UniProtKB/TrEMBL annotation:
It comes from Neosartorya fischeri (strain ATCC 1020 / DSM 3700 / CBS 544.65 / FGSC A1164 / JCM 1740 / NRRL 181 / WB 181) (Aspergillus fischerianus). This is FAD dependent oxidoreductase, putative. Residues 3-313 form the FAD dependent oxidoreductase domain. FAD binds at V156. Belongs to the DAMOX/DASOX family. D-dopa binds at Y215, R277. Keywords: FAD, Flavoprotein, Oxidoreductase. InterPro entries: DAO (IPR023209), FAD-dep_OxRdtase (IPR006076). One of its GO terms (biological process) is D-amino acid catabolic process.
Amino acid sequence: MEVGIIGSGVIGLTSALALAQAGYSVMIVARELPGDDSLRWASPWAGAGILPYPDSAGQDLQTETFKYYWALAHRDPTSGVQVVDVTEYYDDRSDDATIWYKRMVPKYRRLPSEELPANAKLGFQYQSMAVNPAVFLPWIKALLDRRGVKFIRAEVASIDHARSLLKTEIIVNASGLGARHLANDEKVIAVRGQTMLVESCSHEMVMFQGSHYTYQIPRMYSGGVIIGGVSQEGDTDERVNLATRTDILRRMNLVTRGRFGSVDLNKHVVKDLVGFRPSRKGGYRLEREGGVIHAYGFNTLGYTYSYGVALKVRELVTAALEEKRRLRGKL
C-alpha cells in the first residue's frame, strides 16, 4: 500500500508519520526538505507555538495535535518540543465563552482584570508546547528515514507530474502555497509574517490578539525567544522591514509591561525572520478528491493542526484505497 505526498512542511511530514505508523509505504516529493533555509516554504519560519484558536474550525484536529505534542515533549526533548506556560490576552472579547480548549489544557486559569495589560479585556493562563522548527523538522525527517519513508527532491508542475515521479495511485497534496497552482485553487494566498529571535532566558509564551497580533514564543536550545508579529495578506516582500521591528518591540513591551525595555534592536536580535504562511480564503482544505487528498491552507496554525490533520489524512487515504479495491472487485 503505497502513498505519495507532495510537500515536506509540517503537514506533509506528520501525514507521512501517521501513514507510516499504519503500515503504509510512503514517498515524499518536495522542492524543499528539512534543513533548507529557503523562504519558499513556511514551516522553518513558524513561531511555532501549539496554540489552539477559539474561532477556527477543526477543534478535534487541534485536540489530537495537542495530545501528540504533549506526549512528545515528555517523551523526547531531542524533538525540539517543550512544555511552556502560556498567557493569552484578547481585546475583542470580554469573557472566555469561546475558549473551547479551556477544558482540555492543563492548569487553565482566568486572570482577574487587574492583571491584564493595556486595553486587554480577557486574559488566561494554561500550559501548552512550543516547537523549535530548526530542531523538529530534521528530527521528524530522521524518524521517517528510519521508518523507510523515501524523499525525492523535485519541484512538481502538477499533481499528475508528482504521480509520475512517485508512482503511487494515492497522492496527498500538502503543498502549502503551491496548492494555488497544483490544485488550481485561487483561494490560496500568502500571508507575510515578520518576527525576531531575541536573546532571553524566558520560558513563557505570551499571545495578544484582537486589535493587534503580538507574541513571545520560547525557542528551545536557541537561548532566545521569538517576538512578533504581523499578518500581512498578499504581501510577498522578503526584506526585513525596519519599522516593523520597532513596532513589534513597542507592542511587546506594552503587552509584557516593559519586559523587553532593555532590548537594543542593534545588539540583542539574534536573527530576523520573514516567512509566508500558506493561507486560504474561507478556511483550510482537508478533503478527498478521487485519488487525491488535499491538506493545505492552515495559515498561522500549521503546527497547531498538524498531527490531527495527519490522522484525518490517514483516514481519507484508507477510504480511498478501500473504494479502489471495491471497484476492482466489481470488474
